[in-house]
Specification:
Length: about 400
C-alpha cells in the first residue's frame, strides 16, 4: 500500500507552506451581490483526473447540477442558520464599540470579538441600542421596543468576564430579560454580519441564508449552499439524487487565515457540529448501493470527516478542530461542491487535500481568466469523484 501519510507531490514543501496558498485576484472578481436567481450562478466542473493538468475544467450553470450527478448520489448539506451576530454599542464613556459574537459558552454568555478590544478588561461594560425596526422587520413582534417603553427596554448590556487567549476575544455576559435568550433579542439589536470583503452589497439578509437554513448559530453562511433553490432541490429529488443534513455552526475557525508559516502547525479553532444518526444511515446506505457522497461545502466536509476520526463514521454531537490539508486520509467524502476561497485560508488547503494544491491553482487560474465571481456571493466548483485520485481505498 502506498504511504499516504505525506502528500505524494514533488513540491511537498510548498504544500506545507502557507506561501504556497497565495494567489492574486482582481478586485472586480470579488462578488458583492448574489446571483438572482440563486441557481443562475456559474459552475466550474472538475470531472476527471486530467482536469487542471492536461485538460481544462468544464463550464456550466449551477442549475445544470441534476444532469452532472448520478441517480443514487447523496448530497449532504449544512442546515446551520446565520444569526445577527454583529452588534454596535458603546462604553460608559461614549466610545463606540463593535462586537462579533462567535459562540455561546453558557446561557447568554458568549465568546465575542470586540473592536477596539485592548481596553476591555474584566468588569468592563458595553451598552447596545436597539436598531430602528418596524414590526414587519422582526419575526417576533413582541421583541420590538415600544415607543412608550422606558429607555432601558431599548438597551442591552453586557459585561466582560475574561479574555480568551485562543481567539483574542472576550467572554461577554449579557443581561437579558427573564424568559428571553440573546439569540431572540439579536433580531432587534444585531445584524447579519457579511464578510469584510463584501463592501458594496445590496443583498437582503435572507440572501445570505441557504433556503434550507434551520439551526441558528452560525456567524457566516455555508456559502456553497447559497446556490440551491427549492425548485432545484425538487429536480434533484426527482432524479433520485437524495439529500441529507448535518449542522456545523460556522465560526472563527472557518474564516480566519492561517498565520503560521508551516501549515502543519496550524491549530484550528473548534466549531460545533452535529452529524445525526439518520444522516449516518443515509451515507451508509448510499455507499452500500454504489452511490457517491457529495459534500455541499467545506463545512460539511469538516463535519463528516470530524465524525469519522475514530476510523468509522458515527453519529456525533460536539466540537471539532479537524484541520484538513494535503496528505489527509479521507474517510467519508467522495466529491465536493464549493465556492472559490480566500488566499492562505484553511479552506484552500482542504480543497487541495482532495485534488492537489498545484492542480487547484491551475483551475483557479482558469476561473480568473474566465471571469468567475469569487468568495461568499460568488460562483461555485463541482469536484466530481471521478476527478479525485484513489489508491487502495484511500485518496492522496
Amino acid at each position: 500500500m502506498k504511504d499516504t501519510s505525506r502528500p505524494q507531490t514533488k513540491d511537498f514543501e510548498l504544500d506545507c507552506s502557507v506561501a504556497g496558498y497565495d494567489y492574486e485576484l482582481p478586485p472586480e472578481l470579488i462578488a458583492q451581490n448574489p446571483a438572482v436567481p440563486r441557481d443562475s450562478s456559474r459552475l466550474l466542473v472538475i470531472n476527471s483526473l486530467n482536469t487542471g493538468t492536461e485538460t481544462a475544467p468544464l463550464h456550466h450553470i449551477f442549475h445544470d447540477l441534476p444532469a452532472l450527478l448520478r441517480s443514487g448520489d447523496l448530497l449532504v448539506m449544512n442546515n446551520t442558520r446565520v444569526i445577527p451576530a454583529r452588534l454596535y454599542g458603546h462604553k460608559s464613556t461614549g466610545a463606540k464599540i463593535q462586537v462579533l459574537l462567535l459562540e455561546e459558552r453558557q446561557h447568554n454568555c458568549w465568546l465575542a470579538l470586540v473592536k477596539p478590544g485592548k481596553s476591555f478588561k474584566q468588569g468592563a461594560k458595553i451598552v447596545f441600542e436597539a436598531r430602528q425596526l418596524g414590526i414587519k422587520d422582526c419575526k417576533d413582534s413582541s421583541l420590538v421596543p415600544s415607543i412608550q417603553s422606558p429607555v432601558s427596554s431599548t438597551q442591552l448590556t453586557a459585561t466582560v468576564l475574561e479574555t480568551d487567549a485562543a481567539t483574542g476575544g472576550r467572554l461577554l455576559q449579557f443581561d437579558v430579560p427573564e424568559g428571553k435568550s440573546l439569540v431572540q433579542l439579536l433580531e432587534v439589536f444585531g445584524e447579519v454580519p457579511l464578510p469584510p470583503y463584501i463592501t458594496a452589497s445590496e443583498a437582503a439578509d435572507e440572501q445570505y441564508q441557504t433556503v434550507y437554513a434551520k439551526q441558528p448559530g452560525a456567524i457566516a453562511a455555508p456559502t456553497a449552499g447559497l446556490h440551491f433553490t427549492p425548485e432545484l432541490l425538487q429536480k434533484l429529488g426527482d432524479r433520485n439524487i437524495n439529500q441529507a443534513f448535518v449542522t456545523l455552526h460556522v465560526g472563527v475557525g472557518t474564516f480566519r487565515p492561517v498565520e503560521v508559516e508551516d501549515v502543519t502547525t496550524h491549530q484550528m479553532h473548534e466549531e460545533w457540529i452535529e452529524v445525526p444518526a439518520a444522516t449516518v444511515e443515509q451515507i451508509r446506505a448510499t455507499k452500500a448501493a454504489g452511490g457517491r457522497v457529495i459534500a455541499v461545502g467545506t463545512t460539511v466536509v469538516r463535519a463528516l470527516e470530524g465524525a469519522a476520526q475514530s476510523g468509522n463514521l458515527q453519529p456525533f454531537c460536539g466540537k471539532t478542530d479537524l484541520f484538513i490539508y494535503p496528505g489527509y486520509q479521507w474517510q467519508v467524502v467522495d466529491g465536493l461542491i464549493t465556492n472559490f476561497h480566500l488566499p492562505r485560508s484553511s479552506l484552500l488547503m482542504l480543497v487541495s487535500a482532495l485534488i492537489g494544491r498545484q492542480r487547484l491553482f491551475n483551475i483557479y487560474n482558469e476561473a480568473i481568466a474566465s471571469g468567475y465571481r469569487f468568495y461568499s456571493f460568488g460562483d461555485a466548483m463541482l469536484i466530481l469523484p471521478s476527478s479525485v485520485a484513489v489508491e487502495s481505498g484511500e485518496r492522496y
